[in-house]
Amino acid sequence: xxxxxxxxxxxxxxxxxxxxxxxxxxxxxxxxxxxxxxxxxxxxxxxxxxxxxxxxxxxxxxxxxxxxxxxxxxxxxxxxxxxxxxxxxxxxxxxxxxxxxxxxxxxxxxxxxxxxxxxxxxxxxxxxxxxxxxxxxxxxxxxxxxxxxxxxxxxxxxxxxxxxxxxxxxxxxxxxxxxxxxxxxxxxxxxxxxxxxxxxxxxxxxxxxxxxxxxxxxxxxxxxxxxxxxxxxxxxxxxxxxxxxxxxxxxxxxxxxxxxxxxxxxxxxxxxxxxxxxxxxxxxxxxxxxxxxxxxxxxxxxxxxxxxxxxxxxxxxxxxxxxxxxxxxxxxxxxxxxxxxxxxxxxxxxxxxxxxxxxxxxxxxxxxxxxxxxxxxxxxxxxxxxxxxxxxxxxxxxxx
Length: 400
Prior knowledge:
By secondary structure, the protein is mostly helical. The chain has 14 helices and two strands. It has a two-stranded antiparallel sheet. Strand 1 (107-110) and strand 2 (115-118) form a beta hairpin.
């Protein structure tokens, strides 16, 4: 254990947070997996627990490997990866699929492995690093809209356009995060308002197109997320069944909860081990457990902001905020959906929900945050070493 602790660097609080979330996640995932086993007839509870353990282990390996890489290398990597993720997103959206395979527009299958990869999660991390790189490189220049259109907004628009039809919530989160980084990068507010208004108009036109030609989008994710938004206020609609069951679970949990593994709604609530795992946590661990989870993510946000403010480079600051804040934002959206504040979005609870791609991309993002934090630590250690030089050597050098 001591050897492991000696080899990790970066913010120790963040290491403790991800460790606590990872360890705790075994309890609700194991409990909620009974839905998959006895309702969906998919595997065994032990099998799902082992799978989750393997995914988390690989996630922690990703964190460790990423935080050992100097964060400045991710700047160049983002430029190389932008064309790659565009190709992956295009293939994901337009890949051949059966008429009933709605989820195919969000996932691609890795040949010979049986593993499915959600390309939008990778695209999100790469895009945020790319945007951070752009504003870091232009920190001393006045940015004009026409000059930023090709190097900045065209890649952003293309990535969001490929994600939007199949995953509206992810595209919306990324757009908000890009605007946030642009604001922090001193991008003119008048241009941001123009971009926001243009984006809103494009979304409205897309929705009107779907309404006008519904057969063209039959059996697609477009109809799924549109139905969720439209029926959000209709409490008796079929689309709100998940939200209703989640609220029942939270309400029945009370203050102390029913106890680990004693959730009733997990067998009635679809996606109880992933998108709605927060409702299961609230039912089994009560208000105490639910508030504790929120507090952990708020603490994570606090540490992310501290690391960003302490970074000596603009790129380090923007990269930490760009890949770190979406993790907390996603967690808050997941919990807001569970309590009925938002329509169903399909966003998992980071490092807690069962899943593969989400865990790994969250781990990649956290690794980048820790890489920036580790660089600051090395700088502090170097400065301390210079201060604590042998006084006799300093005196001799001064006299000489």
